[in-house]
Amino acid sequence: MIPVHVTPSFVESVLSAYPFALLIIQDKNLVDDSELKEISRLIVRFYDQWEMDLDLLEKEAIELRYFERKSFSDIAAELGYENHSSAKRLIDHSVKRIADSIQKSYK
User: Which pLDDT tens digit goes with each residue over 69-92?
Assistant: First the structure.
């Protein structure tokens, strides 16, 4: 098997692209077998697989940050944390956990 190095930055990039990928998939002006739609479907499949490993709080934090583009302060307020640092730690931990999980699945 080929060694794979998945970084948290890669995971964050995919998470950030997810909302746009959904829009591209639904775009009726693009043909279904276009390269852009194929990549978009891959991005959606990545997150669909990753979200199964997240608990509800992690999933909500990820969605608020990457899909709704909320600030750490807004996320902290919404999740009942005292400050933005707690929300940032939760998101950073969740992203790293996803990256580690992917890394392990390729060993």
Answer: 999 999 999 999 999 999 999 999
